[in-house]
Design goal:
This protein is an all-alpha fold. Helix content is 91%, strand content 0%.
Length: 89
């Protein structure tokens, strides 16, 4: 028994019937078209992953800049508070 409960002889018989029905030229064209479609799909997937990674990196950079700006604001606020306390004494 082969994959899915089909014997190798049954698979060979199906292959011969398909060859007789469509011929080798049509099957070659179908194979070429299918290969091109798979290549295009893989290319689109890798491009999509690359764009997603770039978007994630840019968001992380923006988050890093925001936290740096927030830290700077907090330190300025602390200095202002300390200056006001020292002016009031």
């Amino acid at each position: 028994m082969g994959p899915g409960g089909i014997s190798p002889w049954s698979l060979l018989l199906i292959l011969v019937i398909v060859l007789l029905l469509f011929g080798t030229k049509k099957l070659r064209n179908v194979g070429t078209d299918l290969g091109g479609a798979l290549k295009g799909f893989k290319s689109a997937m890798s491009d999509g992953e690359k764009q997603a990674k770039e978007a994630k990196d840019s968001l992380e950079q923006e988050d890093g800049e925001s936290s740096t700006q927030n830290q700077h604001r907090e330190s300025v606020d602390e200095k202002d508070t300390a200056d006001k306390k020292s002016d009031g004494s």
